[in-house]
Write a structure and sequence with these properties.
By secondary structure, this protein is α+β, with helices and mostly antiparallel strands. It has helices at 15-52, 218-222, 226-229, 253-256, and strands at 67-71, 80-87, 100-108, 112-116, 120-123, 129-138, 147-158, 162-171, 177-182, 189-196, 200-203, 215-217, 232-233, 235-240, 246-248, 264-268, 271-281, 285-293, 311-316.
């Protein structure tokens, strides 16, 4: 007995049916846009009402509509702190006259564990700022291709209710050179920490039996003379910064050992300020540089903040 073969029939739509399908699709898209915009407009209106009462509850990293940030240089092994700042100001002339109390929550994806340093806080009217820290830990082995998500919310409870939130997408950047900025609200200075994980040097200028591009181990490099070492490189770093925001600690060892003629300066109010310099880093080394802040209410922690207040560029063995 032969089995009957069934063929799938193609559904053909006439012009009227196609028009209806298009209209339905446009309606769905429009409804989504209207819903999103409606939520944004509502939050905007609510914030206007609160500010008309002299209430300001703000953050540089959170918003009422939920901001988003990406972190890509976590090593996936060590504890990683994320600093969140809050303030009671609209600008330098307008701030809330009473203390603001608020609650803190955090939600994490299943491949990390999050620990808050506190679950509630107070922005005092005289200090005008407060902050909290989320420390993340890997759950099991956090691999290079994995990403994690952290959502945190700060909700004021007195004298008015306002909710701010942000979501961090966290991944691992495979790099032999990395840097971070450690800072906090109220601190008079920040620390720039640079790490060169390259374990060798390369010859930039031929000398003796070495030619350009040759790899040199750390032990081999340490046996060279000072003149010979000058022909080799593991990493060269260039820093640029704005003296309106940051002032360099002029006693810093890294700055004192900068490359000759690499310093850049500017004149402000008849005074000369450093705006950048260049230096070499040894293989498998770590440097910390202190910068004084002109505004201690700022929090320049990086990469918690999407952009670094200090421009860092490198030339490493990979570039030779």
């Amino acid at each position: 007995m032969k089995r009957k073969k069934f063929k799938l029939k193609k559904i053909k739509l006439n012009k009227k049916q196609k028009l209806i399908a298009i209209l339905i699709a446009l309606f769905i898209v429009t409804l989504t846009l209207v819903t999103t915009f409606g939520r944004y407009a509502y939050n905007l209106y609510q914030n206007y009402i609160l500010e008309s009462q002299g209430f300001y509850f703000n953050s540089s990293v959170m918003s009422m509509n939920g901001s988003k940030h990406s972190i890509n240089n976590w090593d996936g092994v060590n504890a990683y702190p994320i600093s969140i700042d809050l303030n009671n100001k609209k600008n330098d002339l307008l701030w809330t006259k009473s203390d603001i109390t608020y609650d803190i929550t955090v939600e994490c994806s299943s491949n990390i564990r999050c620990v808050l340093n506190k679950t509630e806080g107070v922005i005092y009217s005289d200090t005008q700022v407060d902050s909290y820290t989320i420390t993340i830990y890997p759950v099991g082995n956090f691999t290079e291709n994995q990403t994690a998500e952290v959502k945190t919310t700060a909700k004021s409870t007195y004298p008015y209710v306002k909710e701010l939130s942000t979501t961090y997408n966290i991944g691992i950047e495979t790099s032999n050179f990395s840097y971070k900025i450690t800072d906090s609200v109220g601190s008079k200075y920040l620390v720039l920490e640079l790490t060169n994980a390259f374990t060798y040097y390369k010859v930039q200028t031929a000398f003796g039996n070495y030619k350009v591009g040759d790899n040199i181990s750390i032990d081999e490099y340490n046996s060279l003379t000072t003149t010979q070492k000058a022909n080799c490189l593991s990493a060269r770093v260039t820093l640029k910064f704005n003296p309106n925001d940051l002032l360099l600690d002029m006693t810093d060892t890294t700055y004192k050992n900068r490359l000759s003629n690499s310093q850049t300066t500017t004149i402000m109010d008849s005074y000369q300020y450093v705006t950048g310099f260049q230096f070499k880093m040894d293989a498998s080394s770590n440097n910390k540089i202190i910068f004084y802040k002109t505004d201690s209410s700022k929090n320049y922690t990086y990469p918690s903040n999407s952009n670094s207040i200090i421009e860092v560029s490198t030339y490493t063995v990979d570039d030779i």
